[in-house]
Design a protein that fits this description.
heterodimer, A: alpha/beta, Rossmann fold, 6-stranded mixed sheet, 17% strand
C-alpha cells in the first residue's frame, strides 16, 4: 500500500522564517516537511508522508484572510493531498485563527479530511471547533510532543476511514454533537460514584456540563458623548518607557495604571510597548498608534468629548489566560465606576 | 476585559483588527482597526495623514458609543 499524502500548514515562526518582525510574510510552498512536520511525520509511522508545507505569516493571514485562503488553497490542491493538517497553534491567537480558517476552508473546498490542534482558550478553537477536529493541546510549544502524537493518531484514523471516537477518547475539542454509546456501568451506579467522589472532595466529571453562554448584554449608549468622561484601556502593552511595572511580554500576570495628566501625546521618548506578540517597532515609534491619546486630546479641546480619564490601563494580551484578563478588568472597572467614567475605548493589537 | 467592563455597567467600544476574535470574545460594540502592529496608524502615510486616519477611527468609536445596539455590532468604516 502506498503512503497517504499530507500537506502541512505552519506559521512564519515554526517555518523558521522569523519572529514577529516576519509575521507579515505572504504564504510560500515548500517541498517536504518543515519544523513541527518532523514530529508529525514520525508519528505517522510510515503510513503517511508530508509532501509539502505551506508557511505563512500570522499577521499576513489575518489581515488578508480571503486572499490568503485562496492562495493557500491553490497550493494545497496542487499537491493532491489525502489530508490537510495545520499547526498545532497552542495559545497563539492569530496562528489559531489561521489554522482553523484554513483547515475548515480546505475541508469545504477539497472535501478531504483536515485536522489541527490548539489550546482550549485559543480564539480559533471557539470559532472552528464545530467545523473541524481540533486536538486539545497545552498552551505552549512545550506540549508539541503530545500534540503531534494525538494529531497524527486521529489523522491516520481519518485517512483509513476508521470510526472516530468521542472527544474525550480522541482528545479533540468537543464539537457539540451527541453520540450514542454504551456505558459499562448503569446510570444509578455512575451517579452514586460521582456523589461519593464529590462528598470526599475528590475530582469527578459531570456527564451533563452546563453550556457556557457567557454573554453580557450591551449597555445603553452614552447620551451625550461631548460631555462624557472617557477612559482608555489597551491589551496592546503600551507602558511608560522602561516598563516600570515589569509587565511580562507574554502571559502577563498584571496590568498597569498610568497617569496621563497633562500628557497630550505618547511619544517614542516617553512610551513604548511591552507586548511580545507583535512587531513592536511601530508602537515604539509612536504609541498613539495603539492608544490614540493625541486625537482624543484634540477632541477634548474641540468639545467632541467631555474629558479623558486621567489614568489609562494597559496589559499585554499576548497568550493571556482568560481568567487573568477577567480579573484585571473587574478590578479596574471598580475605579472607573467610582470616578464616574461613562465610556471606555479599548484597543487591541 | 471588554466583557468585564460592559458587565460593570460602562458602555465600551473595542477597536481591533481581527474583528472575528472580538465577536468570539463577546464585545458588543466593535470598530475595525488598520493592522495588528498599528491598529490606529499607518507608517506608510505621512504623519498628518496618519493622524487624520486615526481621527476617523476614533470618531467612529465615539459614534459606536453613542449608538443603541441590541446585539454584537461591527461599525464598519464607510
Amino acid at each position: 500500500m502506498s503512503e497517504f499524502r499530507v500537506v502541512h500548514y505552519i506559521n512564519q515562526f515554526f517555518g523558521q522564517v522569523g519572529g514577529e518582525e516576519m509575521a507579515h510574510v505572504p504564504p510560500e510552498y515548500r517541498e517536504g516537511k518543515v519544523g513541527p512536520g518532523l514530529a508529525l511525520e514520525a508519528n505517522f509511522k510510515g503510513e503517511a508522508v508530508i509532501v509539502g508545507t505551506v508557511v505563512c505569516g500570522d499577521s499576513y493571514f489575518n489581515e488578508n484572510m480571503d486572499e490568503a485562503k485562496e492562495t493557500i488553497l491553490a497550493m494545497v490542491e496542487k499537491a493532491k493531498p489525502d489530508l490537510f493538517v495545520a499547526g498545532p497553534a497552542f495559545n497563539a491567537g492569530r496562528y489559531g485563527v489561521a489554522c482553523g480558517a484554513m483547515a475548515a476552508y480546505v475541508k469545504e473546498k477539497l472535501g478531504i479530511p483536515v485536522i489541527t490542534g490548539m489550546y482550549i482558550e485559543n480564539p480559533g478553537a471557539d470559532m472552528y471547533k464545530t467545523d473541524i477536529y481540533i486536538i486539545s493541546t497545552r498552551n505552549s510549544a512545550a506540549g508539541m510532543r503530545d500534540a503531534a502524537k494525538k494529531m497524527a493518531a486521529l489523522a491516520l484514523k481519518m485517512l483509513k476511514n476508521e470510526k472516530i471516537g468521542a472527544s474525550s477518547e480522541e482528545d479533540y475539542i468537543p464539537q457539540g454533537r451527541r453520540v450514542n454509546l454504551f456505558e459499562k456501568l448503569r446510570g444509578s451506579e455512575r451517579a452514586v460514584n460521582m456523589l461519593l467522589q464529590k462528598l470526599q472532595g475528590k475530582p469527578f466529571t459531570t456527564e451533563y456540563p452546563m453550556p457556557d453562554f457567557d454573554r453580557v448584554p450591551p449597555n445603553p449608549p452614552v447620551a451625550d458623548i461631548s460631555r462624557a468622561k472617557i477612559a482608555l484601556v489597551t491589551s496592546g502593552g503600551i507602558v511608560p518607557k522602561g516598563n516600570p511595572d515589569h509587565i511580562e511580554s507574554s502571559n502577563a500576570s498584571k496590568y498597569g495604571r498610568y497617569d496621563i495628566h497633562g500628557v497630550m501625546n505618547l511619544t517614542s521618548d516617553t512610551y513604548e510597548t511591552a507586548h511580545g506578540g507583535y512587531d513592536p517597532s511601530y508602537a515604539n515609534a509612536d504609541a498613539d498608534r495603539v492608544v490614540p491619546l493625541d486625537v482624543l486630546r484634540d477632541f477634548e479641546t474641540e468639545g467632541k468629548v467631555g474629558s479623558i480619564y486621567e489614568y489609562f490601563f494597559s496589559t499585554v494580551g499576548n497568550g493571556m489566560a482568560v481568567k487573568s484578563a477577567k480579573a484585571f478588568a473587574e478590578d479596574f472597572s471598580k475605579e472607573l465606576i467610582k470616578e464616574n467614567v461613562q465610556a471606555v475605548i479599548l484597543t487591541s493589537t | 476585559m471588554v466583557k468585564e467592563i460592559e458587565r460593570a455597567g460602562i458602555p465600551v467600544v473595542h477597536i481591533c483588527t481581527i474583528t472575528p476574535i472580538s465577536l468570539t470574545v463577546g464585545a458588543n460594540r466593535i470598530v475595525p482597526a488598520v493592522a495588528i502592529p498599528y491598529p490606529l496608524g499607518d507608517p506608510a502615510l505621512s504623519k498628518a495623514e496618519e493622524k487624520q486616519q486615526r481621527r476617523k477611527i476614533v470618531l467612529k468609536a465615539l459614534d459606536a458609543l453613542s449608538t443603541e445596539v441590541s446585539e454584537q455590532t461591527v461599525f464598519d468604516m464607510e
